[in-house]
Amino acid sequence: MREEKTALVLGATGGVGGEVARQLRGAGWDVRALTRGAPAAGEPRDGILWIGGDAMNREDVMAAAEGCLVIVHAVNPPGYRRWAELVLPMLDNTIAAAKAQRATIVLPGTVYNFGPSAFPTLHEDSPQQPTTRKGAIRVALEQRLQAATTQGARAIVVRAGDFFGPKPGNSWFSQGMIKPGQAVKTINLPGTAGVGHQWAYLPDVARTMVSLLEKRESLVPFAVFHMEGHWDDDGTKMAQAIRRVVSRRTGNAPALRAFPWWLVNLASPFVATFREMRELRYLWSEPLRMSNDRLKAVLGYEPHTPVDEAIAASLEGLGCLAAEVAPEGAMTR
């Protein structure tokens, strides 16, 4: 039986999926989360029903999605191993469940779909001519989603820049610029000074998705939106903001240094992660900015947390900065 405002989140233990699950719950949705770590019978925790299962198993996904209006597909293979081999079959399982339930799929998108031919300003309908294997797979993901919308499913894709937020995840912010769990003494700059770069704060991305879901019935079956997020106009503003936040809190200003691309180039033949980083270096050597005109036309705004506030929350969540303690008697939000 179909239940009112019930959503299934795949990848709820990750950065994007976790934020979307929490914000859906806060917006009055009944939220289920499919995870390999939960008992098969399901366990409520933090207002979310955790269901044991595997996103790579179609029967598990179909059962967990029974009665759902929405399926958030924010899942990746464990440890990102065999990513290229598994991401399309995982999406196929979600599509099968969405078609059976006539549900809306929400997919966090990226800029990997686009090659330099679409730069410097990316619109939702800019030509997708990826130059990397990961980019080609991202194009295929969206093509499969679009095809599914002709067979009973609906889809919302929210493309954004490089993610950052309070959970480590596989992001440039937490894996390339700083080190989770350590005080910030040095900040790496992956880009070239003067080359603009696009960033997206995970809670803002999640808030955008939840807001779009409230308008899902008025959207076209395959709806794609770009977020502007945080635009670093010269490629150094994000690092400077991290430095500013850390200095304000600790009194010590971290050093800025160039990211060691030489090491990535040297190790890429032997380390898959470095090989992918090398393939995506073009995103740091040419400016790109995403237009959010379509998003603002639908929502009237884009959720946007001030950059210093977003960075402070991210560093606290990553264990790089102690949380601020409000003075006794002070009001808290």
From TrEMBL:
Q: Give start and end of each NAD-dependent epimerase/dehydratase domain.
A: 7-219
Segments crossing the lipid bilayer = none
Under the heading InterPro entries, the entry gives: Epimerase_deHydtase (IPR001509), NAD(P)-bd_dom_sf (IPR036291), NAD(P)-dependent_oxidoreduct (IPR051783)
User: What name does the UniProt record give this protein?
Assistant: NAD-dependent epimerase/dehydratase family protein
Please give the organism: Tahibacter amnicola
